[in-house]
Amino acid sequence: MKYHEKVHQSAAYIQEKLGKIQVGSAGLVTGTGLGGLTSAIKNAKSLFYREIPGFPVSTVDSHTGRLLVGTVEDAPIVALHGRHHLYEGFDARQATHAVRTLGELGVGVLILTNAAGALNPSFAVGSPMLIEDHINFTGTTPLRGDNHALWGERFPDMCEVYDSRLRRLAVDKALALGIRLERGVYMQVMGPNMETPAETRMYRAMGADAIGMSTCMEAIAARHMGMRLLGISCLTNKNLPDCMQEAPLKTVISRAEEASSTMTALIAAILKEIRDLTDEA
């Protein structure tokens, strides 16, 4: 079975079990330690990834591996509670299978969240960072291989991966809620090892403000399908090359969970108006 046929099969099964996805539904991908974002979803119906034909199964303990359909602030949403990473052994296409499925279900706006290490020394740990652009430093892409023309063109433009109107909405809502919102460039590396001091200096010199092991693959696949993107990182630690401190996974998860209420409030406020913004586009 071809890749796009597997994605179509996954989408068809979800609709069979959970019903037709409401037109105008937004998509949400929750990062490490940010699964609490899904607690804001009302009237939720769900499927575990292992139940969905063709769906890869998350192998990271902090990623539950569940797809939920419901509403947040009366806005329809399809959420991925957990994602798939390259470091788990998935290739780029497998890592973006779930996001491609959201596209097949009709999701037009996708919110990507992640836990990330701050490279910019002025950024505050625990704060969200609005992703203004990204650097894919993994050496691969989900567009490698045959192109499925019904999803998008062979050479999709990437001059504005993260939608400017959605970014302005996020800034406005952060200001209204009194949330400190950093803004910067996110870099994805392969992982799962953390960065050395020398690598940290290099990444910062390349223009990255935060670093993690996800998101860019999903963003590329989503833009290829014409989705509008908003990306928000939760800064769980700070990489200072001259005084590096260990950032074990349990610390990353703990800090992300502590910041989850702030992230939830911000995303809920965005979703409250995101449908009107989408209708105007």
TrEMBL record:
UniProt-listed Enzyme Commission number(s): 2.4.2.1
A Pfam family matched in the record: PNP_UDP_1
Domain Nucleoside phosphorylase, first and last residues per copy: 27-272
Functional pathway: Purine metabolism; purine nucleoside salvage
Gene Ontology cellular component annotations, sorted alphabetically: cytoplasm
Membership in a protein family: Belongs to the PNP/MTAP phosphorylase family.
Protein's UniProt name: Purine nucleoside phosphorylase
Organism of origin: Pseudodesulfovibrio alkaliphilus
